[in-house]
Amino acid sequence: MLAAAAAAASLWAQPLPEAAAQAAVKAVPVPPSPAVPAVLLPKGTMVRLMVLKEVNSRDHRAGHRFALRVDEDVTVNGVTLIPVGATGWGEVVAAQGTGGAGKSGRINSRLLYVDANGRRVALDGQRDSAGSGGTGQAVVSVIAFGPLGLLMKGNNATLKAGEIINGYTSSEVAFDSAQSASSL
Amino acid sequence: MILAAILGLVSAQDLSAASPPPALIVQPYATTVPAGTPLRFVTVATIDSRSAIQGQRVALKLADDLLIGSQLVLARGTMAVGEIDALSQKGMLGKAGKFSLRPLFIDIGGERVNLVGGREQRGRNGVAAAAVTTALLGGLGLMITGKSAILSADSVVHGEIKADVVIAAPATALPQ
Fold it and tell me: What ipTM was reported for this prediction?
């Protein structure tokens, strides 16, 4: 009786190492990713961004990069792919300072990308801003101060801290859904 | 006789198998709305440059039905979301307030249909008044400001569909 039980136990025990060996062999060529489905962030998805620190036409020149903060979750099918607080970047493309006779400054900037959940998402979007001022104001100051009024400059163009810029994803990006969920 | 009966049964089964399932007829079908399709929105509330802030979202309402062929895709009155894109306050030397409002998206069951377009609203410029007052009264005229920009409720904002989008037709029937 005992011998029969031992024989049965050995029969049960035998296939296990084989299965383990097969699993070990099979595990090598199969990449680990197929079990985790990817979530696609479609091209053209809107990303709401906030300027963190003022950028202006007096202090900043073309090529200056500035930080942005994602201001609204970007979700696809209930999965948050880009969470609020993720960091994005923009770049000053052209900056023009102020001048005499009320000439105001200009600043053109564009959005670059957002980093979220280990992915870099490229963005499309730009912002042109001009400082206030202009010929009308120069005329009034000339009337008030005479020719000295011509020295009056316009205002610098600024991207104020807290200003909102909307960007749109410029290509489709695949996110690892498990990674996105765990970062929530 | 038996053979004929069997054949009859088989053909009856074939017929029942060939007829389309009724569920397909009931389901609403989706319509592709091409990029650039013009839409007309109206503002729901008055927007004033004094109280508005840059980046603020405002409610918009679709002013017309959107029809693709004879299919109603978006009904008049569908809500959309707009945003104060740029804003500057009125100031001295007759500077008027101004803002630009752009439609952002229509939310259909959690899916966003992105929009482009917009309009700019300016207050009345006070440069001429400031100039005249300065000429007559001196520096006091510099204090004169322009007017704030005010966009009243039911003002029209033009927009377009930003990119090709598939929208499921609403369940409501076309009003005759």
Answer: 0.71
